[in-house]
Design brief:
Elements: E1 11-21, H1 31-38, E2 47-49, E3 55-59, H2 66-86, E4 89-92, H3 111-120, H4 123-126, E5 131-137, H5 141-153, H6 155-162, E6 167-168, E7 171-172, E8 189-190, H7 198-211, E9 221-222, E10 224-227, E11 232-239, H8 244-262, H9 275-288, E12 293-296, E13 301-304, H10 305-319, H11 326-334, H12 341-352, H13 366-379
Parallel strand pairs: 8-9
Antiparallel strand pairs: 1-3, 1-4, 1-5, 2-3, 5-11, 6-7, 10-11, 12-13
Helix pairs in contact: 2-8, 5-8, 6-9, 8-10, 8-11, 10-11
Length: about 375
C-alpha cells in the first residue's frame, strides 16, 4: 500500500450538511437535484453526494492556512445555500436532525449506496448523520502513523469540542453528541487500534478485506485513519458544527496538534495502555461534551475536557507549530467557555416550543420544527 506523501501540515476539511425542506423543517431527500445544479458551476467538483439523499458534502481544497480555508469554505457554503434556496430548501449544520428516522431516508442512486445497503441493511440509513472530517498532510508513512496514534488518543476531546447532536427521532438523546455512537455498531468502526508500524496497519486493513466487510480504505470507519492515497491522516469524529467559522477553527486546532507531534512536542508515553480509559472517555465525551471528565493518556490523569483543550491551546501557543493559524486558534481557545453547540440547540428548542420543553419522543409541532431548522440554516454563516 503506497503512501502518497503530501506537503507537511497542509490541510483540508469535509463538511456533511443537512438538506432541509424550508417549509416544514424536515430533512428533504433532495441532495441529488442540488448536486446536479452545482455540477454546472465552476466549483461543482467540490460537492459530493452521500449514501442517502438528505445529505450533501462540501470538500475544501488543500490549504496552508486557516484564513484561506475559511474564505473558500464560506464562499462554497454560500453558493450551496443559494442553490438550495432556489429549490425551496435550506442547508444547515449540526450532527443530527431532530426528526431523523432511518426508515424515511432515501438511498442515493449510486453503486456505493447500493453496496452499503446490501452489506449493512438499515444501518447506512440510520447513519444519516452529519460529521466533519479533517485531513492533515504528512511527509511520510512513519509520520502519518505517529500522528494518527496521537490524534486517536485525543478523539474524546475532539468529540467534546464539536458536540452538536443532542436530538434524534423526535427526542432528546441525553447526549451532547449522539452521532459518534453510531460508528460503534459497525465491525469496521470505532477507535483506530494503536498502529505499531506500516506493516501492522496493512495487516489490519487486509483482515477486514478478507472478511468481505470492506473492500477499500473508504470502508474502514475508524475515528482516525491514515489515508495513503491522499498522503494524509484523517480525523472523522467531529460533529458538523453549527457555524462554518467553528469548523475551520477546529480544523486549525487539529492541524496544530498534528504539528506538535511532528515537532516532537507531543507523544504517548504508554502507547498500548489505557484502552479501557480511552473507551470510557469516548463515551463520557459523547454524553457530557466539554463538561466531561476525560482521561488524557499523555499526562496519565483525568481532567475536565475544557481544561484539556485549554492546556493544549497553551502548548500550541508556546511552540507555534502552525503560526499562520494564530487568529483561528485564539478564537477557538477564547470560545472554550462559551455555550456549547448542543446546549444552544437545546435552548433554541425550548425558546421556540409552545410548551418550553425539549422534544420527548412524539412528533413536534410543525411550527416549532420549521422555526428551529430555519434558525440553524441561518446560523451556518453567522459571525463569518
Amino acid at each position: 500500500m503506497q503512501f502518497a506523501t503530501s506537503e507537511r501540515l497542509t490541510f483540508g476539511l469535509e463538511l456533511e450538511l443537512e438538506v432541509i425542506d424550508a417549509g416544514t423543517g424536515q430533512l428533504s431527500p433532495s441532495s441529488l437535484s442540488i448536486w446536479e445544479e452545482l455540477q454546472a458551476t465552476e466549483h461543482g467538483q467540490q460537492f459530493a453526494l452521500e449514501a442517502t439523499q438528505a445529505t450533501i458534502e462540501l470538500n475544501s481544497s488543500i490549504h496552508t492556512d486557516a484564513v484561506s480555508m475559511h474564505e473558500e469554505v464560506h464562499a462554497r457554503v454560500r453558493q450551496l445555500q443559494d442553490v438550495a434556496a432556489s429549490q425551496g430548501l435550506g442547508v444547515c449544520g449540526g450532527g443530527t436532525h431532530v426528526a431523523q428516522f432511518w426508515n424515511e431516508r432515501v438511498l442515493t442512486p449510486s453503486e456505493r449506496a447500493y453496496k452499503l445497503d446490501d452489506r449493512f441493511g438499515f444501518l447506512p440509513k440510520r447513519f444519516s448523520t452529519y460529521g466533519m472530517h479533517v485531513h492533515v498532510g504528512m511527509p511520510d508513512p512513519e509520520s502519518a502513523l505517529r500522528v494518527a496514534n496521537v490524534l486517536q488518543a485525543h478523539a474524546p476531546l475532539f468529540i467534546a469540542m464539536a458536540a452538536s447532536s443532542p436530538f434524534l427521532q423526535n427526542g432528546d438523546s441525553g447526549f451532547a453528541a449522539s452521532r459518534p455512537l453510531e460508528t460503534l455498531v459497525y465491525p469496521n468502526g470505532g477507535p483506530m487500534p494503536y498502529l505499531v508500524d506500516w506493516a501492522h496497519f496493512e495487516s489490519l486493513v487486509q483482515e477486514f478485506f478478507n472478511t468481505g466487510i470492506a473492500d477499500s480504505l473508504k470502508d474502514i470507519y475508524w475515528d482516525v485513519r491514515p489515508k495513503p492515497e491522499f498522503g494524509t491522516v484523517e480525523v472523522r469524529v467531529f460533529d458538523t458544527p453549527l457555524r462554518v467559522r467553528k469548523a475551520v477553527n477546529l480544523a486549525a486546532f487539529t492541524r496544530a496538534l498534528a504539528g506538535l507531534v511532528l515537532d516532537g512536542k507531543l507523544d504517548l508515553p504508554n502507547p498500548r495502555r489505557h484502552v479501557t480509559e480511552g473507551k470510557v472517555s469516548r463515551f463520557l465525551a459523547c454524553r457530557d461534551g466539554l463538561q466531561a471528565r476525560l482521561f488524557n493518556p499523555v499526562s496519565g490523569r483525568w481532567l475536565v475536557a475544557r481544561d484539556w483543550a485549554l492546556a493544549i491551546s497553551e502548548q500550541i501557543v508556546a511552540h507555534s507549530p502552525t503560526p499562520t493559524d494564530q487568529q483561528a486558534l485564539e478564537a477557538l481557545a477564547s470560545g472554550i467557555h462559551d455555550e456549547e453547540d448542543h446546549a444552544r440547540m437545546r435552548a433554541l428548542w425550548r425558546n421556540l416550543s409552545p410548551s418550553g420543553r425539549l422534544p420527548e419522543g412524539s412528533a413536534p409541532s410543525g411550527q416549532t420544527l420549521a422555526a428551529y431548522s430555519a434558525h440553524l440554516c441561518g446560523e451556518l454563516l453567522q459571525a463569518d
